[in-house]
Design a protein that fits this description.
67 residues; mainly alpha
Length: 67
């Protein structure tokens, strides 16, 4: 399996959108798409624990609260 160049992926993606949505709605879709900002991989360390026991305790607490 070969890796496609980004320009080819972009072209194929646009064609798929136009085929499914039509040119007007495909354009509208691209206008609302927002990739966001920041670096999730680095930022998650500030709010996500690395301790598995702490993560499990947090999940169990939320499950009890939702019951």
């Amino acid at each position: 399996m070969s890796v496609k160049p980004l320009v080819q992926i972009q072209h194929e993606g646009w064609n798929a959108l136009v085929e499914k949505l039509g040119p007007v709605d495909a354009s509208r879709f691209l206008q609302i798409y927002d990739p966001g900002s920041g670096d999730y991989t680095n930022e998650r360390h500030s709010w996500l624990s690395d301790d598995p026991d702490e993560i499990i305790a947090s999940v169990m607490k939320r499950r009890k609260e939702s019951e």
